[in-house]
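This section describes the prediction task in plain terms. A model, or a person checking by hand, is given the sequence of a single protein chain and must write out its three-dimensional structure as a string of tokens. No templates, partner chains or ligands are provided. The sample shown here is typical of the held-out split.
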Amino acid sequence: MYDMKQVPYHNNTGNACALACYTMVAQYLMPEAGITFEQLAKIGNWREGYVVWEYPIWNWLLDRGVYIVDYEPSDIISWAGKGVDGLEASVPAKEFEWYKRNTYDLDEVTESVKITIHHPSFTLINRVPVWADVVAEYGQPGICDVTLNSKVLNHEEGVAVHRVVLLDITEDEVVFHDPNLDGSGIHRREPLSYFRNSFESLESRALARYSVKQ
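The expected answer:
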């Protein structure tokens, strides 16, 4: 079933690279659902100008038979158990302030986190993923997305968290769908060492694998 050549592509409309990736995942794993970027944005209660949180969208996927393995460096168990106070206690102060400033409704996201971590189709690996994890998860059934530093990826200075969908990892290169602004990131290819560096340059990077039973 898992033919990465058949993964659809969706570009980024602004600050929604993650939403574009979740759209690609949903369209690939559940083509019969006919899901669109706009529908998934509504499911995720996303507002333009704010960050895209994965948990409402993941819950929708989980309830429809998708299994998710999530490598998560932050303490979402504490967040779910203690609410927003738990999130504040588990991340650096500047990071928490960024979340508050860039999230439309943090309490609503908290309720989604509580549902996600207890879902029987969700597996949490509570640590920062390393490159060996990316290779290992890519080798399992399903489709993976990762966060990386798009500044490094695009030969620029600075840090910008960006999410992409993996299509192929060879000895020499990585092929991926890059949901960039102009839509030119379909089947993008980069040398493996360079892609790996853009992944590893993020301190709080993320990795997720999505699958359905065969």
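For orientation: The longest strand covers residues 161-169.
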